[in-house]
Amino acid sequence: MKLGARNQLKGTVQQIKKGSIMCQITVELDPKGRMSSVCTLDSLKELGIKKGDKVRLIAKAVNVLVIKD
Amino acid sequence: MKLGARNQLKGTVQQIKKGSIMCQITVELDPKGRMSSVCTLDSLKELGIKKGDKVRLIAKAVNVLVIKD
Amino acid sequence: MKLGARNQLKGTVQQIKKGSIMCQITVELDPKGRMSSVCTLDSLKELGIKKGDKVRLIAKAVNVLVIKD
Amino acid sequence: MKLGARNQLKGTVQQIKKGSIMCQITVELDPKGRMSSVCTLDSLKELGIKKGDKVRLIAKAVNVLVIKD
Amino acid sequence: MKLGARNQLKGTVQQIKKGSIMCQITVELDPKGRMSSVCTLDSLKELGIKKGDKVRLIAKAVNVLVIKD
Amino acid sequence: MKLGARNQLKGTVQQIKKGSIMCQITVELDPKGRMSSVCTLDSLKELGIKKGDKVRLIAKAVNVLVIKD
Question: How many folded domains does chain E comprise?
């Protein structure tokens, strides 16, 4: 299976916080850093992930913002 | 200056490809990995970045997709 | 600090509604109009804003939709 | 016709720049400010807008980022 | 009224789940399939939709991801 | 492989238009309808798709807008 998005980061699920319709999945990136994804509880159920699972994070390039300090 | 987005990654600009209205900025992440951002040429001009510059990449959590292999 | 997004609007925080993982920040634009941003509670904490604070709102051009009546 | 997005700004089309598959529509906001939208040339054709036309700009709250200086 | 987005799907509202600030609208597509939209409760109120209503779903092409199995 | 997005539509690649950094992939949905995705040429190369290929289209619920006529 291939995706039309080359921005992929690997990591381990560190925390899953559930709201009433959405959830926040926090991932410890490999080798370092942290990133969160927000999706519906329906999608979380479909994913079937839990703390400690290895996952990939995808972000389309158009949704990435560059900042220069 | 603070941002309403905690998904931040640091890196170095590796390549800037210009189209007719958009551009693609490829960033070598620290310590490893690569990520691209697509924005308008207007924004690129505003940013004033060039190859080798240190930048931060931002992606709102709602625009990050989790994949489980 | 510079951003790769030229769509910037200034305004004053009018209301912050907190959900279980997300929050909605409503901003009174200067000189008129109103706009909302939805982000995680983590990002809100990072921002450290409260009612009455001056803020800027950013939206990447690709995420802006044009409508003709 | 009603939309599931309350972030609406009114303005006048100031410039339309065409690329090979995308275009950038720059809108002079009423009463002041400027905002750009990027969409496909197909969508531009569907919209049928030209310089001077009155339009509305829509951005979903989840795609709006708050910055505090 | 015309929109700068050609990705439009028609369907019938099947379910509306409300959270504290957001809601999830599930739509049964015509002729088949299902799709969800997440928006603020403010937008839902503005839309004024209920189960059984006919609606259109819009997604900008830049926010659509292609997958090849 | 599982994805954190339940909004999935199946179809056949009908056309691929290439720009200088981006491309537009138009997909004929099954059983009917049409949808476009815009991504970088890098992602297109990674996908390795051509006209006639079967693909899936993904859109996060937060990026889907509801319209009521």
Answer: 1
